[in-house]
C-alpha cells in the first residue's frame, strides 16, 4: 500500500493534510523563514540555507528573497539558475530547471492541481511535473501551469500564463500563452519587454 507521499510524487490523488506531508511542509516553511527573513540580504548563511531547502541544486543557484515553495526537495536545478524576488514554486511534484534559467520577479510555477469534481476536491489533490529547458528566460509575473514543458532557449513574456508545452527556441506571450515567433539565437539582437 502506497503512502500519501508516494501517491503525491507519482501524480495520484493524495491527502495533502497527511501527517508526514504536513511536517515536511512545516520544515520547508522554517527554512524559508531563514531565507526570507534571517538571511534576507543575501550573505554567507544563504548558501547553507539553500543547500538544505533545495538539496537537488548546485551551489550556483541564486534566489533573491522573498521566495516560496512547498517542499523544496522536488526542485531540481542545473547550473546558473536565478530566481528574482517574489517567485513561488508549488513543488508537489518535480520542477526541473535546466542550466541558465532566469526567472524574473513574481514568476509562479505550479505542479499542484485539483480535481474538477467538487466532492473529490474537498479532500484530495494531485500534481503534474513541470520542466523548463536550458537557457530559458521566464518574464515577470508569468505563470507556468501543471504538466507544462518549456523547451530549450525559449522566452516566456511577462504576464504569460503557460497552459501547454512550448517548443524549443520559441517566444511565447499572452493568456493563454501562444508562440508568436521562433527565435534564432545566433543573430538575435532585439529586446522584448518581458
Automatic annotation (TrEMBL):
PROSITE patterns, A to Z: HEXAPEP_TRANSFERASES
A Pfam family matched in the record: Mac
An example Gene Ontology molecular-function term: acyltransferase activity
Keyword Lyase: no
Alphabetical list of InterPro entries matching this protein: Hexapep (IPR001451), Hexapep_transf_CS (IPR018357), Hexapeptide_acetyltransf (IPR051159), Mac_dom (IPR024688), Trimer_LpxA-like_sf (IPR011004)
UniProt record similarity statement: Belongs to the transferase hexapeptide repeat family.
Keyword Acyltransferase found: yes
Enzyme class, first EC level, given as a word: transferase
UniProt keyword list: Acyltransferase, Repeat, Transferase
Domain Maltose/galactoside acetyltransferase: 5-59
Name of the featured protein: Sugar O-acetyltransferase
Its EC number(s): 2.3.1.-
Amino acid at each position: 500500500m502506497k503512502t500519501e507521499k508516494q501517491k503525491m510524487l507519482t501524480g495520484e490523488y493524495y491527502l495533502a493534510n497527511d501527517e508526514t506531508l504536513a511536517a515536511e511542509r512545516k520544515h520547508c516553511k522554517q527554512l524559508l523563514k531563514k531565507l526570507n527573513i534571517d538571511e534576507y540580504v543575501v550573505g554567507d548563511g544563504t548558501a547553507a540555507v539553500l543547500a538544505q531547502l533545495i538539496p537537488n541544486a548546485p551551489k550556483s543557484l541564486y534566489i533573491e528573497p522573498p521566495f516560496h515553495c512547498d517542499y523544496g526537495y522536488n526542485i531540481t536545478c542545473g547550473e546558473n539558475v536565478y530566481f528574482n524576488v517574489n517567485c513561488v514554486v508549488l513543488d508537489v511534484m518535480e520542477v526541473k530547471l535546466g542550466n541558465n534559467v532566469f526567472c524574473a520577479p513574481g514568476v509562479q510555477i505550479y505542479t499542484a492541481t485539483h480535481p474538477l469534481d467538487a466532492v473529490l476536491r474537498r479532500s484530495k489533490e494531485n500534481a503534474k511535473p513541470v520542466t523548463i529547458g536550458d537557457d530559458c528566460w521566464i518574464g515577470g509575473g508569468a505563470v507556468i501551469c501543471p504538466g507544462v514543458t518549456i523547451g530549450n532557449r525559449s522566452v516566456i513574456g511577462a504576464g504569460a500564463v503557460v497552459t501547454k508545452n512550448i517548443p524549443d527556441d520559441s517566444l511565447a506571450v499572452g493568456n493563454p500563452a501562444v508562440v508568436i515567433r521562433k527565435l534564432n539565437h545566433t543573430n538575435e539582437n532585439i529586446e522584448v519587454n518581458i
